Each structure stands twice: as structure tokens, then as C-alpha cells.
Amino acid sequence: MAEKFGNFRWVKEGYLDDGIPGYVVGRIEFAAIGPVDFCLKGDFKPDIAGKVIRFKNPKFVDDANAGYRLGDFPSPHIGQVSLISFDPHPLLAPHPYIEWFSEQEEHFRIELETDEGWGVEGEEANALHEDALKIYGALATQKKPDSADSLSNDQEWF
Length: 158
Hints:
Blueprint: E1 11-20, E2 23-30, E3 34-41, E4 52-56, H1 64-70, E5 77-85, E6 97-102, E7 107-111, E8 117-120, H2 122-139
């Protein structure tokens, strides 16, 4: 079963950048633990491929239970993309969907409402991409060989 971060209410905001071929890199802020840098092997699905996305959760709650559940969440976080899309399923309305596996093969998912995620362009995208390049430089070499790479990037959610 996937960790859904207190039914997604423990996810405050973040950004992910698909501008580094073969990697999704960014930062997500969680309740209790704050910002976590991400370096995930894989790519966004074609609807947002190559873009920088941002998201903000208006239902965010920073409650005490988050600390108990997220206290051992890896930070920084290295893993494998399962599915990242704004249109993840043909039978559902388009919405931000972020799903990945950690190096320890733990399954995580963030699913938000349609208007809670958007593509970023221009100066903001450039600034976030520069930040992502720094994160990538720091984390890409920490990736364990033969760990998350064994997970399929071609998994579909149906």
C-alpha cells in the first residue's frame, strides 16, 4: 500500500523539474519534517514531459500525527518515478498525480485537485531549474546501483 501522507493533508507545496533527461528533481514540503529534496530516476508522462511543475495544497495541516508517521521519511529522497502526470487516468478528471518508489522500494503517492498544480514557465521555471540542477548535482551520485533502477518506469495506473 502506498503512503498517502495523511490522505495528502501533510503535503504543503513543492516543485518538480523534468528538465534533466532521465530524472525528476525538486523539493516538496511536508508537515513536521519541512522541505525534502528529491532526485527520482525516470520522467514525467507526456502531458507534462520536460516541464517544471508546482503544486500547493490548500488542505495542508501540520498536526502532531504527521511527526509520528513521517519522522523516518528519507531526506533527501532518492528513488524511482512510477507515474507523474496531470492527466493520470482516462476515466478521471485531470489532476496532479505524483507516485514514486524509494530506494528501499517503499511506495509513495500524492494526489491533488485539478487547480492545485500547474506548469511553470519563464523566469520562475528558470530559477527552479537552476535549483533542481544543484539538487541533482548533490544527489544523483548518492543513488545506489541496482536499487530503484530495477523498478519499471513503464508501470501504468489503471
